[in-house]
User: What shape does this take?
Amino acid sequence: MVDLKPRCGLPIKFDPATMQVSFGKEIDDPLCGTRELDALRPLLLDPDASGPECLYWMYRYLFAKGDRPLLLGKHRLRYDMSCFVSGKLGREYMKTSGHYHPPVFEYGGIGYPEVYEIEHGEALFLMQRVDDFRAGPDEVKVLDVIALRAGPGDKAIMPPDYGHVTVIVGDEPLVMTNWVSDDFSSYYGSTEACRGFAYYVVDEGGEPQFVPNKTYKRGVPEIRYARPKEVPELGLTRDKPMYLACKENPHLFAFLNRPWDFEQLMWQGLYIEEER
Ligand SMILES: [Fe+2]
Assistant: This one.
């Protein structure tokens, strides 16, 4: 059992061998869900790849007892945890289905962002901005692709209007948490029609390699590589679990509901590396 408390700030233990999670009694029962391999098949480079039946477990509305009225009720923020098996599906690294967030206002404008914290294992976030996230593979134009690699303690900001998929690149299972606005539902539709994101991440001698997804008929841009950076103004530092940072200063996480006021600060969280 790995004690995740030093990392996430909540009394949670995780067993990488069985993927079992145990929540301390100070935590309200979260909502649990799973994602099965069959649901992911349409998004894989090899839809017939073999792998475990269940690929990841999601625990939504994870709050310590007594925190819900302030954080969820007043600030409209949701804290979730997800646990992913590691390994390959064919040549491809294990991944999530990937999704987009809608704009904050129905009539358009900037979309909802999100922030992840890595508790165990290693993640590679592939983010992409497109001209229309509801458009199919023949019409959609991919404007930008960013690959952000993150490890334990890192906070990874998904900026507004960037769809994101999480790729599990380490040998260990991945455990990560997120803070996100509770005022929207993610959009999955077009990622399935496009058979995933702009690139597939495959294992090439132990290192991630990016294979362009040819389903995007208008082509895909070059990848920009990034590393996560601390943004203390948003409560995001490596040494502090972001659950506690938000509990102590929920106003620092207002960027998740009012992203237009914090765009520059959010981009400070992504250090874009020079050309490789
Ligand atoms: Fe998201």
Q: What stands out?
A: The pocket of fe (ii) ion is lined by residues 99, 101, 114, 158, 164, 186 (CB under 6 Å). The chain has one domain: 2-272. The first strand starts at residue 2 and ends at 3. The domain at 2-272 is CATH 2.60.120.10 (Jelly Rolls).
